[in-house]
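--- STAGE predict ---
source: upstream dedup step, 1 unique chain passed
mode: sequence only
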Amino acid sequence: MLFIYSASKSHQRSQAFIIALLMMISLLATAEILFDMSKLQYYSDKYGSSAAERLQDWNEMLGSAELKGLPELEKLKRVNDFFNQMEFVSDLDHWGEMDYWATPVEFLATNGGDCEDFSIAKYLTLRHLGVSAEKLRITYVKALTINQAHMVLTYFTTPDAEPIVLDNLVADILPASQRDDLIPVYSFNGDNLWLSKSLRGRGQLVGGSDRIKRWKELRERMTTQ
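--- STAGE serialize ---
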């Protein structure tokens, strides 16, 4: 009986190890490596010691076991507050281009960016912290208060739920029903692209997000940072 019990316990440990290994492989297959800390000195030399401090703070956030264990709504608040400390700067002033989608590393190192840089950085950080892509959309809108194109991040607790909006123009995370100042045009995540008529709905699926040229370019640049 002792031998049978030991074998059973050993089998259980083996099963637990295999399950944990499969979970880890699954996580690695979907996670982004957002920042290579071995390049910290490069960014410090190029943009100053404050750039290195911002990147270190972000890296600590990405690796925080405490943060990863929090409810998703608290993760959203922490990430939203963190990036909303950055300065808003137009692409033309910041990069000398009319439309440039910066990686989170570029955004933090240079301490500035425009609306898509805020939204993309929040999206990629939340994905790294375990929030499913199915719950997140980077949403291109017209902002009526400033009468121009704008980008926000939206989060759906369930597929049919009213989304909430993370925005660099408004500090509070609000439900879509309280953001009548935003008229959606399209939205996307790491997988799909939707056309949208209402901020509250999920929109019409029209293909993969790889159709968006600047999104593809950004993902390619991330592999070299």
